[in-house]
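Changelog-adjacent note: as of this version, every example in the card shows the full chain rather than a window. The one below runs 314 residues end to end.
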Amino acid sequence: TVFSDSAIIASIPVLTSSPYSFGPFTPGGLGVYDVDIIATTDTSQLDGDMSNDTQLGSFAITDSTMARDDGIHNGGNGYAVSGTDWGYALTLYDVPNGDTLTSVTIELEIPNQGDTTHAIIVNTLGGYPGFITHIGNDQIISGAQNVYTLTFTGGGVVLPAGTYGIGVYEGVGTTLNLRQSNNLYTPGSNFFQVGSTPGVWTGSNIQTARFIRPNFGIAPSNVGINELSTIEANISIYPNPSTGSSDLYFDLEDALDVKLNIYDAMGSLVSTQNLENILQDKVEIDLEGQSNGLYFVEVNTEYGKVVKKLMLNK
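Full-length structure tokens:
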């Protein structure tokens, strides 16, 4: 705990609210800060179910955050890709000078308890989304929290100058309900993809700004972590999702020996191989004999391991 404050509110009339301003808090550095607000009739008495008296939230401190929204969520129940299929929703952003994407902050209008999401980074060709280059860490949605900061393995992804699609995953049979603003709209910036047409991006006709905000920060100072971040930024899988066969692309600055492991969603090892002197190479990932679902592609190097997610949808 880096900060705490409390107040006693004598009484609140029924169906009314009582505002309270917390004392000033100065963050100690860059990062994600979790906020818990607990309401109780007595500080010494908490009931057994904290979910009905606790409001959870978080915010990120970075050196820069991009946003296409104006902070006013007046887009109804939020934006959802599909209620039956898995999907991705993304917004295009220009990165003029190159930077390290440390996380992606999203806001949900109606958070669905237990849903799982993660951030994605998509390259672009001629201002149009291409293939997914990076998939972030999984985030479990809480029914009491609207704001989430989605992270990446290794603390961030180094992005050279260019245009990127920054987006989020929506699971099968559920809706992510991204907050959106009706006040702003940038034509040609919103796209989606669904599981029934994997790899195909479609421009959204809903003229709103989605609450998808990329956060850029300082690259990790540890040399090994810097090397690993650079390696991760230069490894990609295409196509993803796969229909049975995909290629793992390497575009490394120095040749490395790599051990490649493929795991299924249950953590069982599907395949393994040792690769020598990998530099600018392409390695086939063959999942023809496997069942549809999520797979983890683990690339082990002398600097550590990089894990990529690969969806199989035959």
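Structural remarks: The chain has a mean pLDDT of 84.
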